[in-house]
Amino acid sequence: MIRAVIADDQAMVRAGFAALLSAHPDIDVIGQAEDGAHCVELVADLAPDIVLMDVRMPLMDGIEATRTIVAAKAATRIIMLTTFDIDDYVFDAIRAGASGFLLKDAPPGELAEAVRIVAGGEALLAPSVTKRVIEHFATGGKTANRTALPELTDREREILIQVARGASNTEIASSLHIAVQTVKTHVSRILYKLDARDRAQAVIAAYESGLVIPNS
């Protein structure tokens, strides 16, 4: 059972998300918060698996709440929800430690699937957000630096490049002719070496370091 908390300053939005998620037998909504400060308290008290976190809230916004939860070394994973498809929110949320980012107008089925994906240890970015991440790092005329991130082995850099391009563990395993479990082990080592909370932050590191250049 995936235990979830919903943080949004609009009561009707919280109720709507709670109803959508509670319709799934594997998801239990165990708490609701009207602002970021209350959400931080709920996470400390209830230790949910997932928080659906609005970006804009009073007292403490979703990004600061995420940063506070992550700094407390909580195991809770966070999906940011917003009506604003704006670059600053995307990068601030990922750097704060969010594991997913979805727009509030996403189809209802995508919400539950997002909860399952992030609860399972993966990172999630909406397609429109992924496009913006790539565009943000696009620098015309440059070539990828295959020796960037020297703390990684050649194999780890090879796998991170594929992660940054959106490949799943299964796709990476097939491409490199290795076992899926081997890919998972490499990804875990990559996250540890980069001090990245999850794949989303590792992708940012890949682009920022120059290991991957969009369209290269």
TrEMBL record:
Record's keyword annotation contains DNA-binding: yes
Q: Where is the HTH luxR-type domain?
A: 145-210
SMART domains linked: HTH_LUXR, REC
Q: Which UniProt keywords apply?
A: DNA-binding, Phosphoprotein, Transcription, Transcription regulation
| Gene Ontology molecular functions | DNA binding
The record's section on Gene3D superfamilies has:
3.40.50.2300
Q: Name one Pfam family in it.
A: Response_reg
Cite the Response regulatory domain residue spans from the record.
3-119
Q: Name one GO biological process term.
A: regulation of DNA-templated transcription
The cross-references to CDD domains, in alphabetical order and at most eight, read: LuxR_C_like, REC_NarL-like
Domain of life assignment: Bacteria
Q: List 4-aspartylphosphate occurrences by residue.
A: 54
Q: What is this protein called?
A: Two component transcriptional regulator, LuxR family
